[in-house]
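Worked example 2:
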Amino acid sequence: MTKRLLLLAVVVLGSFRSAAGADVAPALRADGVEVVGLTASDMDRSVDFFSKVLTFEKVSDVEVAGDAYEHLQGVFGLRMRVVRMKLGEEQIELTEYLAPRGRSIPEDSRSNDRWFQHVAIIVSDMDKAYRRLREWKVQHASTGPQRLPDWNKNAGGIEAFYFKDPDGHALEILQFPKDKGLPKWHRGTASLFLGIDHTAIAVADTEASLRFYRDVLGLVVAGGAENYGTEQEHLNNVFGARLRITALRGAIGPGIELLEYLAPRDGRPYPSDLKANDVAFWQTTLTAPDVEAAAKALFATRVFFVSPGAVTLPNSSLGFAQGLLVRDPDGHAVRLVRR
């Protein structure tokens, strides 16, 4: 995202447009992304990976069980260990379901399958970061780091590389050129891994996703591009890849990037039976000032609910007092919480 697009996003925070083009107020106004979560099969292994390889720091480590958590996550009889880890100003949330155990990520998963999600970790030096990942023998998802071509006005000069964590979750390291990205990614620093810029999700229809993330949740479109060519193919490891990419942001936290594959259009849909204890499961947590009001607004828009509505937790051990879990038009899990 260019600085010009960032300024535009700030200017239009109070103004939203429906798919038809008319100015509308969002059904609710989420503050932004607080944390991006993923399910881990072995917590200690995942914590070691994110801390030792990517220099995340552990923020909290709790174990919870009970009716409230079962209803929030849609998993009966659960006992889960939840670890939050921080890199720069952003956090990830790792959840291991001690009971019941879920399924592993399908080995043939591809970047255009609609259960695909990743977090983009910003680095200060792509060559050094890639060498570090090679030293730790990470699994490649891209063939190697790719520099997007200069003809692509909104993405030219960005360097990126996809890889996988020990469970097979897709991750990305990304370096912005000087004229792109948030100003904080260009501050002088001795750190190699700086923070999380966004989480990216594969979608079938950008306009349908915008009606949810923009018109219902109140996020702002902050930029976009259409990416194709050999660099994009080798980055995503999808032959013939042509993507419509749309960046959304709230007032706080990382952005959400919509990845619509214009070609090839053979990505598989989000499995209808994928649950929070399955390792392929991700959830993006946004904060909202009033979760009860958010539930009413979401029920009115006929969004698919995982939780039965707003769920009040017995304490704030997870970092929030009340939450709800819904699915976006493609099935990606979105959790709204009140601290």
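Helices lie at 3-11, 43-53, 67-73, 126-135, 206-213, 230-236, 291-300. The two ends are 29 Å apart (CA to CA).
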